[in-house]
From TrEMBL:
CDD domains: AdoMet_MTases. It comes from Planotetraspora thailandica. PANTHER family: METHYLTRANSFERASE (PTHR43460), METHYLTRANSFERASE TYPE 11 DOMAIN-CONTAINING PROTEIN (PTHR43460:SF1). Residues 45-131 form the Methyltransferase type domain. This is Methyltransferase type 11.
Length: 243
């Protein structure tokens, strides 16, 4: 737990968990979809890029590619990764307006956005443009959250059908919507500490000191029964702006 509590958690690189935790990947392979789409557009925007890991891994980027991020440590990480690719990282304040003009981008992408600003996405997309996003689904890894916080509501704000309705209300046409449930395994309590420090909305305000009792109970459970298993949910949504 001491190691997991001290390691930096900026960005979305989860390599520290190698050997400690695993999570199944969605069948649609989001990075592959981006690699297939990018060569066919002249401009792209990555919203809430995190540390820039996903965008930096795309083999080819259009000459006009821009990323946004609001968390200061991630802005630094993303700039370091994306500057060599010629991609500026625009610091935003997390507000609801994107700092771009109307009809600016052929493709807008976002992996695991905290909030999706559908009206703004529709505004900055060119007619005929596409929004492609992989998002956290309903009650993702709820088994872990409930260990620390107790039973959670059955409903969720991250319902894919709610995303469809919001996209259509903004004037977009949803052409693909898929949801998958993915097995997630934590082999030791240190993996849980690292995960909750990084994915801060799972247990808001999490610290080792605050939740030491629950961590000890989870450690004892893993020792007695084996790895802790939870299920992440992810959905893919693709929406087009009419010509």
């Amino acid at each position: 737990m001491a190691d997991a509590e001290s390691v930096p958690v900026e960005g979305w690189d989860f390599s520290w968990l190698n050997g400690r935790a695993t999570e199944e990947r969605p069948s649609w392979r989001y990075s592959r979809l981006l690699a297939e789409r990018m060569p066919h557009v002249s401009s792209a925007l990555d919203i809430q890029t995190g540390g820039g890991e996903v965008l930096a891994g795309v083999p080819w980027l259009p000459s006009v590619t821009v990323a946004t991020e609001s968390w200061p440590p991630n802005i630094v990480r993303a700039s370091q990764r994306l500057r060599p690719r010629g991609v500026p990282v625009i610091a935003d304040d997390g507000g609801v307006r994107l700092p771009f003009g109307d009809d600016a981008f052929d493709l807008v992408i976002s992996r695991h956005p905290v909030v999706t600003w559908w009206d703004e996405i529709a505004r900055v997309l060119r007619p005929g443009g596409t929004y492609l996003s992989q998002q956290v689904g309903p009650r993702s890894v709820v088994e872990l959250t409930e260990h620390f916080l107790g039973p959670r509501p059955a409903s969720s704000a991250r319902d894919p059908e709610a995303a469809r309705a919001a996209a259509e209300a903004a004037g977009l046409e949803v052409v693909d919507l898929r949801l998958e449930r993915l097995r997630t395994v934590f082999n030791d309590v240190g993996a849980v500490v690292y995960f909750l420090r990084k994915v801060v909305w799972m247990v808001p305000g999490f610290t080792v000191e605050k939740y030491r009792t629950e961590l000890k109970a989870l450690h004892d459970r893993i020792q007695a029964e084996g790895p802790f298993v939870a299920y992440a949910t992810r959905f893919l949504i693709e929406a087009h702006k009419p010509q």
